[in-house]
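Table 4 source record.
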Amino acid sequence: MPSPLPRPDTASDRRRLLGDFVRAHRESLTPESAAGRRRTPGLRREELAARAGISSTWCTWIEQGRDVQVSAHALGRLANALALTRAERAYLFELAGRHDPEAPAPADIADAPASLQAAVAAVTHPAYGLDRLWNACCWNPAAEHLFVGWLTEDCQRNLLRFVFVEPAARKLVRNWKDRARRLLAEFRADYSRGFNDPRLREMVDSLRRDSAIFDTEWNAQSVLGREGGLRHFTHPQDGVLSYRQHSYSPADRPDTKFVLLVPAT
């Protein structure tokens, strides 16, 4: 009987990738003084360590993929010494499993990225964009026509507030209670990623005060991934409508969502 294959060690793979990444970028740097014969390309480990204000032993161990504890501030100094771009720096911190203390602040939630605005405007079916607080940040005329009481009125554009607080939602969304429960479970999956945003916590607190159902479902701790599927509406002018929903996140702003509703046949 053949021996079982070894189980993959994800942590070990991450450390190896981190070591390869640091070594490759160290070797791509130009020494400040190239005098004398050099056996290795780029910077030596001790030169990189001096630039980063860390020990050369630590540099050696990280390049060897050893299990060393790396602080976020030490990683930041290493990223600066390696002259990493923003994307490279984010990759370094991701491999090390650390949060970058100098990560750029999230973009203003009032601004819909150009990619999202273009996608929404390019389709004739109902489409809209959501920011990370689930406010509608852009929408097309078909979505404005469909979502009576949300995108057609002078009110807050938050999707959760519309569904849980506005009476118009209960008339428009068929199977309202089930849809509301699922919507909140999908939002909770996003909530964990933006927990440090005080506006997010304030919004949840406000909804818990204003909607008993929201408060009950929030305490239920249900979590679901945002998925597509059939959505049914009772429109005040067009009657019963059915759509198949698709959701995507733009690569340049993954904290936003593009939501498209295609008529179901």
